[in-house]
Specification:
Its EC number is 3.1.3.25. It catalyses: a myo-inositol phosphate + H2O = myo-inositol + phosphate. Pfam families: Inositol_P. Its cofactor is Mg(2+). This protein is α+β, with helices and mostly antiparallel strands. The chain has 2 domains: 146 residues, Fructose-1,6-Bisphosphatase, subunit A, domain 1 (Fructose-1,6-Bisphosphatase, Chain A, domain 1), CATH 3.30.540.10; 113 residues, D-Maltodextrin-Binding Protein, domain 2 (3-Layer(aba) Sandwich). The chain has 8 helices and 14 strands. Strands 3-4-5-6-7-8-9 form a 7-stranded mixed beta sheet, with helices on both faces. A 5-stranded mixed beta sheet has the order 11-10-12-14-13, sandwiched between helices.
């Protein structure tokens, strides 16, 4: 299914969407080109929509018979998400991960694309055009940033763990309780930025782990493969790896190595139980 021509074509499509639909609108969004979807923090812009349309057309052309699950398409028709559980190859697309920073004219956003088949991630691309970064990963082929191989490595023994977690403003009371356990000796948690950039930081060994409370595949698919291929691991609250089709026990973590993933997961589990050990 995957060959060099397809990989090159997908990368070209990602770069073109950023160059044509996203970057020219940076700091230039007009009134009416930004809208609220489900809540004030959940924004969509004309750049999101146009980039997803371009990517959808290009990626389907690259791989006949494939389907696209894009963030904006799912917002318009939630049934589109069901393709993740089907037999056709599926492209998972987040045209702008970090729409709020993009709207504010900041650099912390990226375009995320992943290719999966029957639940298995096969390839991914993380493009942060304002930062001049493009990372890609292939199942069994490694992870790379601007052509240089990524190795997540392991946190040095005894060093405080740096963990990016779901922002408390966007979590439920139960999720806050689970995440609160990260505020402990030996761990330095902070609210996350764009998920794709946090995964890239884990894969590059600049961040030790993430702790996320939502499972939209377009936010996680590309980064999870990037972390895996850089030597990292991911676990849900049930102790199994994250499944892109959904039904995951949350919160979940992605980390530089399996040991760190288990450590973070144990804290999240303890936090979810509460100080009395109950539910």
């Amino acid at each position: 299914m995957i060959d060099e021509e397809l990989l090159a074509g997908a990368e070209a499509a990602v770069r073109e969407a950023a160059a044509t639909d996203i970057m020219p609108r940076g700091r230039r969004l007009a009134e009416g080109e930004v809208a609220v979807k489900t809540a004030p923090h959940d924004l969509v812009t004309v750049a999101d929509r146009e980039a997803e349309r371009r990517l959808t057309h290009a990626l389907r052309e690259l791989l006949p018979g494939s389907v696209v699950v894009g963030e904006e398409a799912v917002h318009e028709d939630p049934a589109v998400y069901g393709a993740l559980g089907g037999d056709a190859p599926v492209w998972i697309v987040d045209p702008i991960d970090g729409t709020r920073p993009f709207v504010r004219g900041e650099t912390g956003f990226c375009t995320l694309v992943a290719l999966a088949h029957r639940g298995e991630l096969l390839a991914s691309w993380t493009h942060a055009p304002a930062l001049g970064q493009l990372a890609h990963a292939g199942r069994g082929a490694g992870a790379f940033l601007n052509g240089e191989r990524l190795q997540a490595g392991s946190p040095p023994e005894g060093r405080v763990l740096k963990v990016a977690c779901s922002h408390p403003d966007y979590t439920t009371p139960a999720q806050k309780r689970a995440l609160s356990a990260l505020w402990t000796e030996g761990v330095a948690p902070r609210p996350c930025g764009a998920a794709g950039l946090e995964y890239l930081a884990v894969a590059a060994g600049r961040l030790d782990a993430t702790a996320f409370t939502w499972e939209n595949s377009w936010d996680h698919a590309a980064g999870l493969l990037l972390v895996e291929e850089a030597g990292g691991a991911h676990l849900t609250s049930s102790g199994v790896p994250f499944r892109i089709a959904g039904g995951n026990a949350l919160p979940f973590t992605a980390a530089r190595d399996a040991r760190t993933a288990h450590r973070v997961l144990s804290l999240l589990t303890a936090g979810a139980r509460g100080p009395s050990g109950g539910a």
